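Following up on my earlier thread - several people asked me to post the actual chain instead of describing it. Fair enough. Here it is, all 60 residues.
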Amino acid sequence: MRNDNLRRGRKRLKLLKRNYDQGKISLDKVKQSVQSWEAHLKHGNTYQLRQNIDKSWLFS
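Reply from S.P.:
Thanks for posting it. Predicted structure:
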C-alpha cells in the first residue's frame, strides 16, 4: 500500500466520522465506505493496518 493512498484513506475516514457525528450521513453509508476501503486494503499485506483501523475508527 502506497503512503499517498494511506493518507487519502485516513483523510476520507476522518471526513466520514465528522459527517456522521454531524448527522450528514447515515451509519449504513459509513459502513459501506469503510467496507469498501478495507476490501481495497486486502489486496496488500495490510493485516496490522486493518486491525488498527478497526480499533481506532469505531462509529457508534
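Residues 3-56 form one domain. That should answer part of your original question.
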